[in-house]
Amino acid sequence: MIHDPAIHVEGLVKHYGTFAAVRGVSFQASSGEVFGLLGPNGAGKTTTLRMLMGILQPNAGAARIVGCDCFGDRATIMRSVGYLPDDPLFQDFLRGREILQFVGEMHGLAPDETGTATGALLERLNLTDDLEEFAVNYSHGMKKKLGLACALLHKPDVLILDEPTNGLDPFATREVHRLIRRTADTGGAVLLSTHLLEQAEKLCDRVGILHKGLIAAEGKLDDLRRNLSGSATLEEVFFAVAGKPVGEDADERSEAS
Fold first, then answer.
1. pLDDT per position as a tens digit, 21-46
2. CA nearest 119: which of 134, 140, 107, 104?
3. I need a surface site. Which of 18, 119, 201, 232 has the fewest CB within 10 A?
4. pLDDT digits 0-9 by tens, 217-236
């Protein structure tokens, strides 16, 4: 069941000098759903998520998560949200176990509580045997797994995930997909940034397609398909919205050859 919006974003703008990375993004994500933020590289997905987490300050606009201002009440946001960045950063010479314990302590958990909160997930992600390794030796995929465990150990109401399966093998990817769906099905809100259209089609209840810093289309997948044509795929919707017709790459390759 979908409830009141857990994430409310209105008119977010972010400039880097004269470049407008985000140009007035607005959307809502409700408890009980997975909302997918789709778009090509450079569309503004990561910038938008970083503003929601208070890492970047917007030039204009407003954003609230579970009723709290993302820019004025960051401490409350951090307690309510589990955030997984695309490229998690850890202290190189801390072990995986020490990183988890530190994050747990920041949320008021004792080491045994942290172990209980993350043990089953780490086992499913096949990371348990690597917890005594230093983070400097972790691959990108291992860092993503550790970052996901850190994001979840305080049982947040909202998950914000930036390309959560980048660098993961198929087994870990399947577990992450199950986790995302289970989070929404049990009443949590998930904001999922991804460029993987198949992943979005499998997991998302609604999507917003970012194009050049704006939400160019938003809605349930079936509604977006119907707006283009009755039998359109999400890929066809995506390319139509992004202004690049399906088949263009193939045509270019054919002409080049």
1. 999 999 999 999 999 999 888 899 99
2. 104
3. 18
4. 999 988 888 887 667 788 88
